[in-house]
Amino acid sequence: MTVPLLDPAAAPAGEPGSVPRRDKTLRRLLRDPVAVTCLALLALIALASVCAPLLTSHDPYRSNLSDALAPISADHPLGGDGVGRDILARLLYGARTSMLGTVLAAAIALAIGVPAGLLAGYYRGWFDGIAGWVSNLVMSIPAIILLLVVLGSVGQSTYLAMGVFGVLMAPGVFRLVRGSVNAVREELYVDAARVSGLPDARIVRRHVLPVIQAPVIILAAQMLGVGILIQSGLEFLGLGSASQPSWGSMLNDAFGNIYTEPLLLVWPGLAIAITVTASALLGNSLTDVLVNGGKRRTRRGDTPAAGDAPAEDDGVPASVPLGPLTGEELLVVEDLRVSYPKNTGTGSSTVVDGVSLTVRRGEVLGLVGESGSGKSQTAFSVLGLLPSTARITAGALVFDGTDLGTAGAGARGGVRGRRIAYVPQEPMSNLDPSFRIGSQLVEPMRRHLGLRAGEAREKALALLDRVGIADPARVYAAYPHQISGGMAQRVLIAAAISCDPDLLIADEPTTALDVTVQAEVLDLMRSLQKERDMGMILVTHDFGVVADICDRVSVMQNGRIVESAPADELFADPRHPYTRMLLESTLEDSEPRRPPGDDATTSPIEQGADA
Ligand SMILES: Nc1ncnc2c1ncn2[C@@H]1O[C@H](COP(=O)(O)OP(=O)(O)OP(=O)(O)O)[C@@H](O)[C@H]1O
C-alpha cells in the first residue's frame, strides 16, 4: 500500500501548497491600507527619534526656568515643560528611550521564549516538564510587584525595568511556540522526515519554523504596543530612570502641571496612543495576512461570499470549471460553495470554494487531497449531510435530472438514502450498538422499497452473503460489538447497496481498517460497482486506492479542485504542481499488505463466519 505523506514545505517556493513566500506576504501586507498607515507611522516615529538632533537644536535635558510652561512659539514649537525644557526635544529624544526599551523587552521575551518553546515542544521529556513548571511559576508572579522589588533593590533604570518585563513576557512566547510545535510534530510529514533520517535541526528549519513564524511575528507586534504602555506606566509612577527623557516621564512632569497647563499631557499622550494603536492594528493586519492568507477581512468584513470570484492570492487557482456536458452524467455539481460562520461571530470561512464535478453511471471518481481540503464537505453536500450551520450554494447540484438544490424535501428524500448511498469512514460508529445488525439492515429496505419483514430479511441475508460474510444468519443476529471492523464495513456496504442505488459515495471507506481487510473491501466495492453499474465518488487521500479502482480523479486543495483527469493520465502526466507534489510525496516503500487470512485481529465471530 502506498501512503501519501503530505509535506507543505516540500513544494517549490511560490507553487501551490508551498509555504507562502516572504515577498508575497509583504506584498499582501502592503496592499492593506491599515497596515501601510501603521507601518508608516511607526517608521516615522523611529526615524524622528534617530534624527532628533537634526530636527531640534534644543537639549532635552537642559532646563531654562525662564521658559517654564512657555507657550507654543517658533523657538518652542510645542512649548516648554514645567522646568523650562523644550517639549519637542523631549518628545523626540524620549521616543528613543520608549522604543528602545520596548524593543529590548520584546527581544528578551523572544530570545527566551522561542528556543525554550521549540525545545520543549519538539523534544518534550524532562526539559518540557521543567520549562513548563518555570513558565507557570513566572506567570503566577504579579509583574508589578516583581518590578518594584527589582527596581527598589537595584536602582531605577528604564532599561532594567524593561529587561525584567521581557523576562515576564517570555512564558507567553514559550507557551505559544510550544503549542504550535507540539501540533506540527504530530503531522505525518514530520514523522516521514524523521523516519527518512533527516537531522532534527533540518526538520525544525524546514517543517517547524515556518509554522511558528506567523504567530511569533504577530505576538511580537502586540508586545511592542504592550511594552510602550507598561514602560510609560512605570515612568509615570516614577519608577524609570529620572535622567532620561521618555514619554512616561513627560506624562509624570505634565501631571504636576495639569491644572495650569493641561496641554502638556497631550503631546506624550498622543505619542503613546499613536504608537500603541499602530502596533495593535499592525498586529491585526499581520494576523490577517499570515494566518488567514489575507482573506479574513474584505471590505464587507467577511470572506468572499458565494458568487464572488474565488480569491487567488493564496496561490491556489480557482477550481477547475465544468467541462462540456454529454447528457450522460448521473451527477452534475457546478460551482459548489460551502461556508461556516466563524466562532468570532463575524464573517465566515469558506471550506468548499467553487467546486465543479460530474460522475457518469458506471464511473468511479476519486476525490483526493490532503486533510482539510474539503473532500468530505463536497461529498456531504451531495448527500445533504452538512450541519445546519453550513451555508451552501451551487450553480447546479443535479442528480439524474433532479435538482437537489431546488427539489422539495420529498423528492430529495427519495434520492438521498435510496438512489444515492453512503459508505462512511468509521464503520463501528455508524452502527447503532443497541440494535442487531439484521434490524439495522432491514429497516431502510422496508421504508424505501416497501418490502415486507420476511422479504427484507431474505434480501438482507443475501446481501450479507454477497459482501463476503461466510455465515450471514449469525451476523444478522449479532450486535455490532460482536463483529470486527472489517465485517462492520462489509455490513455497511451491504446496507448502502440494499436499495439498489445509482450513486455510491464512499468517504475514506478503508481508512479505519486493517491493511489486509482494506484490499478486500476495496475489491468488494469495485466488483459491486461494476456488477450494478453504479456511479461512485470515492473520497480518499491515498493514491494507491485511486490507482486501484478510480476511473477519473479530481485533486482538491484548499476547498478547490485544482486538477481533474482520467486516473491513468493523471499518474502519467500530472499537470498541476500540487498534484505532482502529492504524487511525489507518496511513499512507495511502506509495508506491503499481508495476504488475506493473515488477519490476527479478526473477531471470534468473523473467524467463525469465515471458517
Ligand atoms: N461543522 C464545521 N464547521 C466549520 N468548519 C468545518 C466544519 N466541518 C468541516 N469544517 C472544515 O472544513 C474543512 C474541510 O473539511 P473536510 O472534512 O471536507 O476535509 P477533508 O478533505 O475531507 O479532510 P479529511 O481527509 O481529514 O476528512 C476543514 O478545514 C474543516 O475544519
UniProtKB/TrEMBL annotation:
<dbReference type="InterPro" id="IPR003439">
    <property type="entry name" value="ABC_transporter-like_ATP-bd"/>
</dbReference>
<keyword id="KW-0812">Transmembrane</keyword>
<dbReference type="GO" id="GO:0005886">
    <property type="term" value="C:plasma membrane"/>
</dbReference>
<feature type="transmembrane region" description="Helical">
    <location>
        <begin position="265"/>
        <end position="291"/>
    </location>
</feature>
<keyword id="KW-1003">Cell membrane</keyword>
<feature type="transmembrane region" description="Helical">
    <location>
        <begin position="208"/>
        <end position="230"/>
    </location>
</feature>
<dbReference type="GO" id="GO:0016887">
    <property type="term" value="F:ATP hydrolysis activity"/>
</dbReference>
<dbReference type="Pfam" id="PF00005">
    <property type="entry name" value="ABC_tran"/>
</dbReference>
<dbReference type="InterPro" id="IPR003593">
    <property type="entry name" value="AAA+_ATPase"/>
</dbReference>
<protein>
    <submittedName>
        <fullName>ATP-binding cassette domain-containing protein</fullName>
    </submittedName>
</protein>
<dbReference type="InterPro" id="IPR027417">
    <property type="entry name" value="P-loop_NTPase"/>
</dbReference>
<feature type="transmembrane region" description="Helical">
    <location>
        <begin position="130"/>
        <end position="152"/>
    </location>
</feature>
<keyword id="KW-0547">Nucleotide-binding</keyword>
<comment type="similarity">
    <text>Belongs to the binding-protein-dependent transport system permease family.</text>
</comment>
<dbReference type="Pfam" id="PF08352">
    <property type="entry name" value="oligo_HPY"/>
</dbReference>
<keyword id="KW-0813">Transport</keyword>
<feature type="region of interest" description="Disordered">
    <location>
        <begin position="582"/>
        <end position="611"/>
    </location>
</feature>
<keyword id="KW-0067">ATP-binding</keyword>
<dbReference type="InterPro" id="IPR035906">
    <property type="entry name" value="MetI-like_sf"/>
</dbReference>
<dbReference type="InterPro" id="IPR025966">
    <property type="entry name" value="OppC_N"/>
</dbReference>
<feature type="domain" description="ABC transmembrane type-1">
    <location>
        <begin position="95"/>
        <end position="283"/>
    </location>
</feature>
<dbReference type="GO" id="GO:0055085">
    <property type="term" value="P:transmembrane transport"/>
</dbReference>
<feature type="domain" description="ABC transporter">
    <location>
        <begin position="331"/>
        <end position="583"/>
    </location>
</feature>
<dbReference type="InterPro" id="IPR013563">
    <property type="entry name" value="Oligopep_ABC_C"/>
</dbReference>
<dbReference type="GO" id="GO:0015833">
    <property type="term" value="P:peptide transport"/>
</dbReference>
<dbReference type="GO" id="GO:0005524">
    <property type="term" value="F:ATP binding"/>
</dbReference>
<dbReference type="InterPro" id="IPR017871">
    <property type="entry name" value="ABC_transporter-like_CS"/>
</dbReference>
<dbReference type="Pfam" id="PF12911">
    <property type="entry name" value="OppC_N"/>
</dbReference>
<dbReference type="InterPro" id="IPR050388">
    <property type="entry name" value="ABC_Ni/Peptide_Import"/>
</dbReference>
<feature type="transmembrane region" description="Helical">
    <location>
        <begin position="34"/>
        <end position="55"/>
    </location>
</feature>
<dbReference type="InterPro" id="IPR000515">
    <property type="entry name" value="MetI-like"/>
</dbReference>
<dbReference type="Pfam" id="PF00528">
    <property type="entry name" value="BPD_transp_1"/>
</dbReference>
<feature type="region of interest" description="Disordered">
    <location>
        <begin position="1"/>
        <end position="21"/>
    </location>
</feature>
<feature type="region of interest" description="Disordered">
    <location>
        <begin position="294"/>
        <end position="320"/>
    </location>
</feature>
<feature type="transmembrane region" description="Helical">
    <location>
        <begin position="99"/>
        <end position="123"/>
    </location>
</feature>
<feature type="transmembrane region" description="Helical">
    <location>
        <begin position="158"/>
        <end position="177"/>
    </location>
</feature>
<comment type="similarity">
    <text>Belongs to the ABC transporter superfamily.</text>
</comment>
<keyword id="KW-1133">Transmembrane helix</keyword>
<keyword id="KW-0472">Membrane</keyword>
